[in-house]
Amino acid sequence: MIKEIDSADLRQRLSGEESEVVLLDIRSDAEWMQGVLPQAEHLPMHLIPLKMQDFPRDQEIVLYCRSGARSYHACMYLMQQGFDNVVNLRGGIIDWVRNGFEVRRPE
Question: Which among 6, 8, 33, 100 is least buried, having the fewest CB atoms inside 10 angstroms?
């Protein structure tokens, strides 16, 4: 069972003073350049197997993509690799934007 969070709940979690969420944007470089969620780190999906040893085991990791489909599968993969702290952003950045939440330009 993949854990999921909706945009409103994620926004509330990120705005908390003690936000212990690692937010990973797993979209392509071109998608990333179109805008990202505040506090997001970019890690294209194909690099997850190479970088997952760097993922914190003591923090929640929220993954998102454009619609939530790729990040759902990435969460499933990470769970198969022994991660139990991964969460999918339901609806992806599309749902985030639909709710009128902030999107920033990547640096």
Answer: 100
State whether the Cα torsion 46-4-89-17 is positive or negative.
negative
d(CA 106, CA 78): 25
Is 75 a known active-site residue?
Answer: no
Token pair of 105, please? 């330009």
23: nearest Cα among 42, 51, 49? 42
Whole-number Å distance between alpha carbons of 100 and 41 = 21
**pTM attached to this predicted model:** 0.94
Which among 10, 37, 65, 78 is annotated as catalytic? 65
The whole-number pLDDT of residue 16 equals 80
Strands (E), the chain: 3-5, 21-25, 40-42, 60-64, 86-89
What are the structural domains of the chain? 3-98 (3.40.250.10)
Q: What is the pLDDT of residues 14-60, one digit of tens each?
A: 988 777 899 999 999 999 999 999 999 999 999 999 999 999 998 99
